[in-house]
Specification:
The chain is an all-alpha fold. 69% of the residues lie in helices and 0% in strands. The two termini are 29 Å apart.
């Protein structure tokens, strides 16, 4: 089973999972589930904040000179615990979830809105569990202290 999950991780990196969910949103969209101008403003704000979280987190990782590639968590050189990482252990995945929700709301995909937890579960099982295991091995007590103080999502 572990070998199969490893293959799935490689075949379905987080950005591809997000794209697949966005395509599903398009296929299940219905204009009757949109709410005009209010809907656009809410979606734009949610997408903007989500994108800002993703970009800020990527910038933090770059400044700390550590890997951003979830398939190579074992190559992490620094455990980043400040900035966005002070309130979420997975701010990029949280931002991706926000983008998925914003897009589903914007195009009126009720199924897409309801699928956000499924997206989060897929990312958690395929990527976060593995990444956290690697970080625990690599950073030991430092990771355990961080894990106790900061939640996985929010």
């Amino acid at each position: 089973m572990r070998h199969f999950l490893t293959k799935l991780r490689v075949w379905f990196p987080p950005p591809l999972i997000l794209v697949l969910f966005l395509v599903a949103d398009v296929l299940t969209a219905s204009p009757r589930f949109t709410f005009g101008g209010v809907n656009i403003v809410i979606c734009a704000l949610l997408a903007g904040v989500s994108l800002l979280v993703i970009l800020h987190t990527a910038w933090q990782m770059r400044m700390k000179r550590t890997t951003l590639n979830p398939l190579h968590a074992h190559k992490s050189t620094t455990l980043v615990t400040d900035g966005c990482y002070a309130w979420s252990r997975n701010p990029i995945y949280l931002g991706m979830s926000g983008l998925q929700l914003a897009f589903a709301l914007c195009i009126g995909s009720l199924t897409g809105v309801l699928a956000v937890p499924v997206f989060m579960l897929a990312v958690a099982r395929l990527h976060i569990d593995f990444e956290e295991e690697q970080l625990r091995k690599h950073f030991g007590l430092e990771w355990e202290r961080y894990e106790q103080h900061v939640r996985r999502w929010l």
